[in-house]
Amino acid sequence: MKTVKIIIIVLLTMVLGANSYAQMHDHSKMDMSKTKTDSKMDMASAKTETLKVSGECDMCKARIEKAVTFDGVSKADWDKKSKILSVTFDPAKTNLEVIAKKVAAAGHDNDLVKADDKAYDALPGCCKYDRTK
Ligand SMILES: [Cu+2]
């Protein structure tokens, strides 16, 4: 009977130990994703690319930047003058083509993908950039 007790205690210790290890592990994983933009590892893997995106005004800027704000993208900045969208993303999660498609879906022509006509037509008058250029 004594041996059985000892075995149970040993087993319990192992199970509990494994559990707390798993929890610790999960916790550290969670923390990593939370602070991913600050961590050095992700900084190294993050990629910044540029894409020429047609647009006219600050409303376009807000729309373009919002369109590319999704999981995997850590930074997006569109310059009204140069029409260049600079976007920083995690190549493991997304790529420039996906980003370009999102921009096009919002109504903005870009170097990689032409905007959806319906989305372009739905843009406010001030945002109707010249599509013939
Ligand atoms: Cu606009």
Defining traits:
133 residues; alpha+beta; 3-stranded antiparallel β-sheet; 3 strands; binds copper (II) ion; single chain; 5 helices; Alpha-Beta Plaits
The low-pLDDT segments are 33-39
Shape category: elongated
Given helix and strand content, the structural type is alpha+beta
Gap between N and C termini = 88 Å
- Number of discrete domains: 2
Percentage of residues in helical conformation: 40-55%
For the largest beta sheet, what order do the strands appear in spatially?
A: 1-3-2
Q: Output the CATH class name of the largest domain.
A: Alpha Beta
Overall CATH architecture of the largest domain: 2-Layer Sandwich
How many beta-strand segments? Answer: 3
Could you say which small molecules are bound to this protein? Answer: copper (II) ion
How can the largest sheet be summarized?
3 strands, antiparallel
How large is the count of helical segments? 5
What is the CA-atom radius of gyration, in angstroms? Answer: 24 Å
Commentary on this structure:
The chain has helices at residues 2-34, 40-45, 58-67, 96-105, 117-121, and strands at 47-52, 73-78, 84-89. The longest helix is centred in the N-terminal third of the chain and has 33 residues, at 2-34. Mean pLDDT is 83; it is low at 33-39. It has 5 helices and 3 strands; from the N terminus they run ααβαββαα. The chain has a 3-stranded antiparallel sheet. It has 2 domains: 1-34; 43-127, Alpha-Beta Plaits. It is of the alpha+beta class. It binds copper (II) ion. Copper (II) ion binds at residues 55-57, 59-60, 126-127. The site of copper (II) ion (CU) has 7 residues, from α3.
